[in-house]
Amino acid sequence: MSAFERKQRVVIIGGGPGGYEAALAGAQLGAVVTLVERTGVGGSAILTDVVPSKSLIATAESAAAIRDAHQLGVQFSVRGESGRPQKPEVAVNLRAVNRRLLSLAAKQSLDMKADLERAGVTIVQGEGRLDGAGRVVVSTGKQGADFDEFEADTIVVSVGATPRQLPEAAPDGERILTWTQLYGLEEVPEHLIVVGSGVTGAEFASAYSHIGAEVSLVSSRERVLPGEDADAATVIEDVFRRQGMHVLSKSRAAKVERTDAGVIVTLTDGRTVEGSHCLMAVGSVPNTAGIGLEEAGLEMAESGHILVNRVARTNLPNVYAVGDCADAMPLASVASMQGRTAMFHALGDAVHPISMRTVASNIFTQPEIATVGWTQKQIEEGVAQGEIYQIDLSTNARAKMMGIEDGFVKLFARTGSGTVIGGVIVAPKASELIFPVTMAMEHRLTVDQLARVFPVFPSLTSSISDAARAMHRVDAG
Question: Architecture of 367-470 per CATH?
Fold first, then answer.
């Protein structure tokens, strides 16, 4: 076989969703693929982030459903010694919950590893770094062989990110925690202080509140979820306060310290908040330092993220970057799509450049917030030309049957044409409900076309049709 006939050599550093999908796509297209992973296939998304956190949230949803069942006429009782019914106590066994979710994460990782092995991908355990633009060096730690070297025609960097740590609030893994350390808790915290009201902070605050912890949420901004739709964030904050959560708005943590009984959070205005545990949810940083990226010539943002284009390609023609280490939306779905797209581009297959405008995202609070496309703020500021319509779920027949009182469907349509350009859904399982809006955007449907689809009655999706129908405009001509 001549040099022109040999198979392309692909080396992928990091086995998270992006690296995993890149490896499968590369193998499918006939490349010789080597995947380097230091912890386990699936990376932090599977082992310490998405899978464990959403499993915990599923438990919280079950606890909340039991708590609220009386609203639908369902009552739980046990017979006391007198023979009279007594209301039982609903408790969450956090040790069992954490054992279950970590087991699920480990199984998912093993299933993904098996998928790669069946596809013919070589998996190397160790820490990889670039040695120029055509070689990857892997520290394996094997006895007698501290490192391996792999020549590569194409390199994919998929090293992910880790929780940001602040020196004035250094995690100790016992009382002061990052979200990757929560799964070692054996009992529900008596009083959990969550520092940071972004997506991660809001999700964990919601979950722990539902499983029985007293929760204080420290938000440096005027409202929780400052980067989200303002109406949606207002709904979530109202729900938080009604369920007894302490929301400290415009409050910035200066330091977090351990005490004999737990932790104390000191705010910049001098106030203090005492609790049993503190979760630091102040963002994440890409794992790009010290792995030879800048030495190889990759262009980086000041934040440490790798700059990429719409096919996940860096400024070096044969190096791609995907997932949370790249300057794209930090979502597992985006990482997966970037991984596939990178391989299609590198190996000469048909490529559809990624449009972040049609990527749907979801916040797994209760209720959830799902969004896609342009935002109301962008429309109001004139960045996009559109019309806005919002319909509350409280008017939906199925929502009434289910006892849903909070939430809404909001659609954005292009002025004149009526093309769907975005939407926001606040509802239970909004992550499932946003799909038809995303499909409408992807295929450039108008609100009239969306309104012509027959929804099931009764259903929550009928509110999407109702909103689209309300945006119909009679042709003036």
Answer: 2-Layer Sandwich (3.30)
